[in-house]
Amino acid sequence: MANKESFFGDVRKHLMTGVSYMIPFVVPGGILIAVAFAMGGIYVFNTPGFAADMFGWGKVAFGLMVPALAGFIAYSIADRPGIALGFVAGMLANNQGSGFLGGMIGGLFAGYVAKAIKQIKLPASMVSLMPVLVIPLFGTFIVGLGMTYVLGGPVTWLNQAMTTALNNLSSGGKIILGLVQGAMLAFDMGGPVNKAAYAFALASADANNWGPMAANFVASMCPPAGIALALVLFKDRWTKVEREGVSGCVIGGLAMITEFAIPYAAADPLHVLPATMVGSAVGAALSYVFDLTLTAPHGGLFVIMLANKPLVWMLVFAVAIVVTAAMLFVLKPKVTESEEKALSL
């Protein structure tokens, strides 16, 4: 049992390392994209100019999020030899659409592959080739096989199945659709479940139905914003290090960067994820109840004036934040002195 606990403790440490290196890519990417939408409208990328250039810079930074996550998870496991394999796994996850979840799995896989190859004994004359040839070449080949033929198929099927399910729900009750859509967006915060819900909102927008996008905004912004409120109001539920992240959660909530909630969800998924899913589900459902629309694919509060009822949208968002914080108060146990160090991010 001790060995199992040690293994999962190590995995958690590796995941947190990856997340900590990922955040500096997420912040500028999300904010620059949001500002570009505010300056140039929802089709800013189609019109050459400064706003379109800014959108491109943000997209590049945001696009490096998953590779950075996977690369530094692998680095945490295998040190420098793991970085290249992890970045390859992250890029493959991006290309196949498995997103944050694929990046996490790929980073762990790449790290342990690199660590295993490092154990191979080579003749003294070939030892210098290990970090520059043996590990990168054979590791990339193994990671490519695993990511392409093991992870890619199931994740693609999962995305298609969830998008189809949401489309079927859209013809039924709007409240049920909102509850499901909101919970999906808060479940893995950038992974395939989140991406399926976002793809549904984008497909609806292409058909000139911007209702799902308004719900998407509420549900995507709610997790970090709700956690920020809980960090301020219920300090005995969090470690000192966790409480120091409140400013990042505020920024994430306002700029629609859900990923700021990931460290908290990864550290205590059994208590944090249900709370964020309930808050986002309630917010998305209320968005449909009030027939809200928002004609922008991203941007947070920077583009909120594009909503048909901005003040009502703000009220719905506030309710969702309060629900998330209240759920965290109910579900998350107090941190004891003995747990303070162990539970720090």
Instruction: Tell me the span between the first and last alpha carbons.
Output: 23 Å
Proportion of residues in extended strands: under 5%
Q: Which overall shape is indicated by the principal axes computed on the Cα atoms?
A: globular
Task: State the total count of DSSP E strands.
Answer: 0
Determine the structural class based on helices, strands and strand pairing: mainly alpha
Main sheet specs: none
Provide a count of the helices.
Answer: 15
* Rg measurement, Å: 21 Å
| Assembly status | single chain
What level of helicity do the residues show?
over 70%
Low-confidence stretches: none
Q: Give the topology string: H per helix, E per strand.
A: HHHHHHHHHHHHHHH
Mean pLDDT: 85
Tags for this model:
mainly alpha
What does this structure look like?
It is a single chain. The two termini are 23 Å apart. The protein has helices at 2-40, 50-63, 65-78, 81-96, 99-118, 130-170, 174-187, 192-206, 211-233, 240-243, 246-255, 262-267, 269-289, 310-331, 337-340. It is globular. It is mainly alpha-helical. The longest helix is centred in the middle third of the chain and has 41 residues, at 130-170. The model has no long low-confidence stretch (mean pLDDT 85).
